[in-house]
Design a protein that fits this description.
The chain is an all-alpha fold and 381 residues long. It has one domain. Helix content is 67%, strand content 2%. The chain contains 15 helices and four strands. The strands form two sheets. It has a two-stranded antiparallel sheet. A two-stranded antiparallel ribbon has the order 2-3. A hairpin with a 2-residue loop joins strand 2 and strand 3. The longest helix is centred in the N-terminal third of the chain and has 27 residues. 41% of the residues are buried.
Length: 381
């Protein structure tokens, strides 16, 4: 980790500034409880939903940075873990509909009734409880990452080969979830949610609560990741990134360290997906698309990998740009995204946060020069 990264991540002041920024974001929708629509401090409900979605993307970007920026593992399949967490929450929301669906069936979701399913599949049991759904949103992606990572890292698959097989994994899951007989809604996915924990999901108050939950989770994830990278575990992860063979020869179990951080990263991504689904109102197999995972990697690169703060900045900046461009010149968005990634790769290898640190270092006044001590001279002979 270079001096710029240490200045941004290792400093408690930098972490405090990031947490204050997240707290300010979290406080914005709370102002709606005391301000009328149209007031200066009132945040439109549409903006609350959009920014809440961006915060979930920031959690995903932070999860990717933990493994890519600090352990050198480039995963092109983290969108799969995000989607699995989303499906876990979607299953709970579908069970919460009860007899208010189109077919008035309190046991089976509407799409199962339409497809002539006779009974609820065993893997849907338990999802009528919110706590179980949240647990599964973290445990299912974590279990998949644990098994997948153990076999991959044990076989010493690294670099571009690991990136390829993670992309193959998410593509295989996308194809599987498109099938109607999987029991997850096929290509339509899960949608038409009614409420969450008894609160109407379309209510402005509920949306503000989901926004606050996303911001709080992002802050907690940032603190957890900072604790990890500042500990001995983090130093070992950086050693694996910079000199894996030497770290292995020193006696460290590289496979165990990689598997642990990969599993933890997948669980964070799953939690982000669980918060994402109730705010957008739908989850379908397109979330497994390899393009979605690649786009998430671009957020990290644009913000600055290996900084923790950078991925959050990158996710917010890129998605804000995406929202603006797709609402005005949608056909040019993919070109803009590609150009952004190329420009960052060529001219900003440290991302936006690295650029800010470089500018701050140049503007900082140089320390005063210390006078060199003069050697003592002996007397003339």
């Amino acid at each position: 980790m270079g001096p710029l990264a240490r200045a941004l991540v290792g400093s408690p002041v930098a972490a405090a500034i990031a947490l204050v920024a997240v707290a300010v974001l979290a406080a914005l929708p709370a102002l709606n409880l005391w301000t009328a629509p149209g007031a200066a401090l009132h945040v439109p409900d549409l903006i609350v939903g959009i920014v809440g979605k961006w915060l979930c993307f920031a959690i995903l970007a932070l999860a990717i940075d933990l493994i890519w920026g600090y352990c050198g593992i480039l995963s092109l399949g983290h969108g799969a873990f995000f989607a699995l967490g989303g499906y876990a929450m979607g299953m709970y929301l579908m069970r919460s509909i009860g007899d208010r669906g189109v077919y008035r069936n309190a046991v089976l979701p509407d799409f199962m009734v339409f497809l002539n399913w006779k009974e609820l599949p065993w893997y849907w049991f338990g999802f009528d409880h919110f706590g179980f759904a949240i647990a599964m949103a973290a445990l299912v992606p974590g279990l998949l990452a644990l098994v997948f990572g153990w076999f991959a890292f044990r076989s010493r698959i690294t670099g571009v080969y690991f990136s390829i097989i993670t992309q193959a994994m998410t593509y295989a899951l996308m194809l599987a979830f498109f099938r109607n007989d999987m029991g997850f809604g096929g290509n339509n996915g899960l949608t038409d949610f009614k409420d969450i924990l008894g609160f109407a999901i379309q209510s402005p108050t509920t949306r503000a609560g989901l926004y606050l939950a996303s911001a709080t989770t992002l802050a907690a994830a940032l603190l957890l990741c900072r604790f990890i990278v500042a500990s001995k575990l983090g130093r070992v992860l950086i050693a694996i990134r910079d000199a894996e063979a030497r770290t292995r020869f020193l006696g460290y179990s590289v496979t165990a360290y990689k598997t642990f951080v990969f599993t933890l990263s997948a669980m964070l991504a799953g939690i982000g997906g669980a918060l994402y689904v109730p705010q957008v109102g739908i989850i379908n197999p397109s979330e497994f698309s390899p393009a979605a995972s690649i786009e998430a990697v671009i957020w990290v690169a644009v913000g600055g990998r290996g900084t923790l703060i950078g991925p959050i900045v990158g996710a917010l900046a890129v998605n804000a740009t995406k929202t603006w461009l797709t609402s005005s010149i949608a056909e040019f968005w993919l070109y803009a995204l590609g150009a952004m990634f190329v420009a960052v790769t060529l001219f900003l290898p440290r991302g936006l946060v690295g650029l800010a640190a470089t500018l701050a270092a140049r503007l900082r006044p140089a320390p005063p020069m210390r006078a060199e001590p003069q050697p003592a001279r002996g007397g003339d002979d």
